[in-house]
Design goal:
By secondary structure, the chain is α+β, with helices and mostly antiparallel strands. It has 2 domains: about 30 residues, no CATH class; about 190 residues, Alpha-Beta Plaits, CATH 3.30.70. The chain has 7 helices and 11 strands. The strands form 5 sheets. It has a 3-stranded mixed beta sheet. A two-stranded antiparallel sheet has the order 1-2. The longest helix is centred in the N-terminal third of the chain and has 10 residues. The protein starts with a helix and ends with a strand.
């Protein structure tokens, strides 16, 4: 049986238009490459984050504030949307009463559900493991938001002011953590990890056995959020 993505590509190649919702049509112009062929990244790397919840302080929002400053998002300029680039979550074990605090963002899955359901290719996974949204292809259907099991995406309802040139944003588009790919592509790391005062977030190449993140993963037992889904997350946690 022909899957939905193959059907959409075939129909669009024929110059047709497909109704995917009330008053919402997917037209041929939307079928385009999600990223240029000369992007400065390689399949040799797989970027990831290791977050140590034992070092994450309750009430500390340094990572959230750093993300806001770097990417230019604020809750007061998104209208009805609750921005989900990164958020702090407080969790309590009902059996022991022990509480932990940890940041949650896009988990940069190896098998991202958001990419699977996107009808235009706007949601895509780079070969180095970073999951992103191409605003030029996003038609605002929000299928990806429904598919994400981590509630890590948000929809922009209002016009955006004071945008950052490295991360174009726009009304009617979905957005989420992109691991500060503009910084990664120039040899840096995510703003959240660099801003953490306790060093609770380690960023690095999961494919490099000598990277700090790989060494830490060999030394400590890390877990993924919702491992039962078998999505192979690029973000992993200690102490949960």
């Amino acid at each position: 049986m022909t899957d939905r993505r193959t059907f959409l590509k075939t129909a669009l190649a024929a110059g047709g238009a497909i109704a995917i919702g009330p008053g919402l049509f997917l037209v041929a112009e939307a079928e385009a490459e999600a990223r240029p062929a000369d992007e400065p990244f390689s399949a040799k790397q797989r970027w990831g984050l290791l977050i140590d919840s034992s070092r994450c302080r309750t009430g500390c929002t340094s990572c959230v504030e750093a993300c806001q400053k770097e990417q230019g998002w604020h809750s007061d300029n998104l209208g009805a949307a609750d921005p989900q680039w990164i958020r702090k979550v407080e969790a309590t074990d009902p059996r022991s009463g022990a509480s932990i605090s940890l940041p949650v963002m896009c988990q940069h899955c190896a098998h991202p559900p958001c990419v699977d359901v996107c009808p235009t290719g706007a949601s895509f996974r780079r070969v180095d493991g970073i999951v992103q949204v191409d605003r030029h292809l996003c038609i605002g259907c929000r299928y990806c938001m429904m598919a994400c099991p981590y509630r890590a995406r948000s929809f922009v309802h209002e016009a955006i002011q004071d945008q950052r040139t490295h991360t174009p944003r726009g009304k009617g588009c979905v957005e989420a953590c992109n691991l500060c790919s503009h910084r990664v592509d120039t040899g840096g790391g995510p703003a959240c990890a660099e801003a953490c005062p306790e060093g609770a977030m380690v960023f690095g190449d999961l494919n490099d056995p000598n990277s700090a993140i790989s060494l830490a993963l060999r030394k400590h037992h890390a877990v993924q959020l919702r491992p039962d889904l078998k999505l192979d997350n690029g973000v992993q946690y200690l102490g949960i």
